[in-house]
Amino acid sequence: MRLIDRIKRQYLLFKHTLNGVEGVPVADLKLQRLKRKIEDIGAPLFPETTSWETNRKELRDNILKMDVSNFLNWNVVKRTMVFDAPTVEYIKVSENNLLLESIQESSIGNPVPYFLNIETSGNLVHHAYSLSMLLDKASFNSFERVIELGGGYGSMCRLFRNMGYSKVYTIFDLPEFSALQEYYLNSVNDGFTENTMFTGDVAALKGGTKPTLMVATWSLSEMPLVLREEILEGLVFEYCLIAFQSEFEGINNLEYFAEFEVNYPSLEFRVMQIEHLAGHYYLTGVKKKPVAQ
């Protein structure tokens, strides 16, 4: 990274930290609803056999005990759901007018302004960059339904809604994360939760005949193999956007996703190594065009 870029990043981060919480206050009713949902989930015994059980417990505790208006600066959120896009990602996003016009950031959660454009955030730019990998091969209007596996705090869904996507969008996640996603999207724009389903039920992902996009950016690759198999069995999709790391908790994801491609012969796949993120890859799949007779 150029020295001037590092200086800009550090200055904005310092200023952001110095100013404290500047996010738009969210109606108490929405906050109360979030906390009530977390309490209704109960306090399960977290076996902490995986990193995501640990993250789940930490997120639960933070929602109940910390200032939710500053949640984007919690350690568990920054560690698992936030990535500050480098310059190369912003340049790529800038080449797509629809993406560029859709990265206006909300102040909900108190995000750090992006060093190249303070009207957005590095994480939103990163999500737009990830989506651009698929849009190089597929039209945004192709998707009649979106299923996102592991939705973070709802930022990818927010990007789709910013882009004018009003069709069904389903986010599959752990219950604490689902509660945060619903709170966030409803706080950004209460219309964003219309046609949006938050679920942890695998059965809710199955069925349907509409052209479907499956999004799994650093989520499917972090699930136990048994859960991956349970989710994918009977899940029909014509497009996919997957991001993964080469290895996670002893699982060789390069081998796993090579086999994944074989299981979907109707899709044309493309694997791209992320040059600025060593050991990480994008895998996109697009429905093959019929062969001319």
- The 3D shape can be described as globular
- The value of Rg in angstroms is 19 Å
Please give the count of helices: 11
| Unreliable stretches covering 5 or more consecutive residues | none
For this structure, the CATH topology is Rossmann fold
Mean pLDDT: 91
Largest sheet: 7 strands, mixed
Number of strands: 11
Order of helices and strands: HHHHHHEEHEHEHEEHEEEHEE
> What CATH architecture label applies?
3-Layer(aba) Sandwich
- What is the level 1 CATH name? Alpha Beta
**Helix percentage:** 40-55%
| Proportion in β-strands | 15-25%
* Lateral arrangement of strands in the main beta sheet: 5-4-3-6-7-11-10
State the CATH superfamily name. Answer: Vaccinia Virus protein VP39
State the secondary-structure class: alpha/beta
* Terminal CA distance: 51 Å
Descriptive report:
The protein has a single domain, classed as Rossmann fold. Helices cover about 40% and strands about 20% of the residues. The protein is built from 11 helices and 11 strands. The strands form 3 sheets. It has a 7-stranded mixed sheet, with helices on both faces. β10 and β11 form a beta hairpin. α2 runs antiparallel to α9 and α5 packs across α7. The model has no long low-confidence stretch (mean pLDDT about 90).
